[in-house]
Amino acid sequence: MSLPDVSTCPETVVAALKRLAGVETHGHTFYDNGGKPTFTSFGSLNRTVEARARRLMGLGLKRGDRVGMVLAQPMDFVVSFFACLYAGLVPVPMYPPLSFGKLDSWAEGALGILQNSEASLLLTDAQLQSVLWQVVPKVKTLKDLLTVEKLDQQAADEGELPVVRADDLCFLQYTSGSTSAPKGVMVTHGNLAANAWVMVTEGMKLVPFTDVCVCWLPLYHDMGLIGFVVTPMFVGAQAAFIPTLLFVKRPNIWMRVMSELKAQHSFGPNFAFALAARKATDADLAQWDLSSVRVIGCGAEPIHADTVALFERTMGRAGLRPGTVMPAYGMAEATLAMTFHERNSLLKVHTLDAEVFRAEGRVVPPGNDEAVLGFVSCGKTFSGHGVGVSDPEGNLLGEDLEGELLFRGPSVTKGYWRNAEATEECFRADGWLRTGDLGFVHDGEVYITGRCKDLIILNGRNHHPTTIEWSVADVDGVRKGNVVAFSVPGEESEVLVVVCETRPNAPEDTAERVAASIAAQLSLKVHEVVLLAAGQLPKTSSGKLQRRKTREQYLSGALGSQGDRTLGSSGEKLTVARHVARSLWGRAAHTAGKLFSRPNDT
Question: How many helices and strands in the chain, by DSSP H and E?
């Protein structure tokens, strides 16, 4: 059978998958927790998705109802996400509990998302349901919790599948909460199609029915979901999905799979490149063949030029070409991607006068004896889209002036679910999206300098936390990528506090070394250096550092009390037991409510 024409952009992601319904020679590969792969053709995927969609319709859910999804296995997630879309439902991806030590905060976050989204159904698997039932009685709109195993045993609806259009709400992407409480971004089918198509044609430039993409990223997060579940399918590119926890346990599986599949594309945040370079052994590099790789995107967190250089240098021994790592910039409110660096071009770092930039926000070349700062280019935006910079009053600025970055175009979403105030604040009436990120544009390319609300002002000078944090990345004993800098009120003015996670057997004078490194490189005095064990810095579900929460915990004296290792193994067992007990009670309460529901129950 001949392959379908994929030269035009489909109106919806549903249309994108349906036009691949007859393709049995190409598809996706799903790895299990042990690293064993299973191939599923596009045709088989389409049939499985439609069958599950009909079972969802058989539950009596109404078009537009929200469905919470807590699914750890990639195959379960992909099929369930598309099944919701086929059935006219709105999936709400949620992150599964990745650490027993943080079950309390995870359960609180899950409850908040389910309540805010007004979910009608919660989909999970047989293993995760043991801790999820506890939230069901607390969400008035929830009709039931179903495992995918039980769902596939339900009766199917034989009626017509609903027609899905571009302006229909596709899914709710809850933001990671790095600077505020998570909010549900309303992504329409049109937003998703517009963003996926420019990534396919202008960003990654995928070759239809030829290219292979490898993803270990969490699929509940926009980079994994849109970048790999949705985008490759628009042109029949194949994808391989590695469970996130498998990558965390065995980081080398990322490049191993890239080598085995002769893959062309992948993506990851800055920390993953450092981890992959550090874990690669001489034997691995001798065995891998990365000569087929064309693009490995880097985004989702500040990009460190030295980390990218180390990764390319290390993987170059396995055939990776220089310029393969491609910086990118994006956010959930813009669907996903906003800018991509030019493919197959070396990393571009713009160097500027540090004093002028900190004092005035102007980008000027450094003098011969002046302190300098360097920022990585994230490239240009796509056709039909635009980027800008504004001052605090919202006025547009020209190039080489720092301000809040703005974005506009068909990828800009419709705002936040049930949050008119936040929508009005971030989505301007003139079509511009306020990103909350600081940066500047130089020669049409975007440079990210920090977050508006994270800016540190010391002695009248602006300092971005990442600059301070990176200055101690190589201090002996410090866990690279696990440093947070912020300011707090001092006796006369704001003072600098730095919090670091340390490695086992870190030198006793690690705090002094951190302060000395910052003084030597940035001429800044540190008021206090706080050292924590691994896993104790607050992070979002996608692994981003939460500076504001770290600062709040520091001021309240709670810093280090909510980390993975705070309770130890015995504490973890008690935490799990407590949540399982709550879930057993929740399931019993839900069943009793079904049997003895009041007339006005919903």
Answer: 19, 26
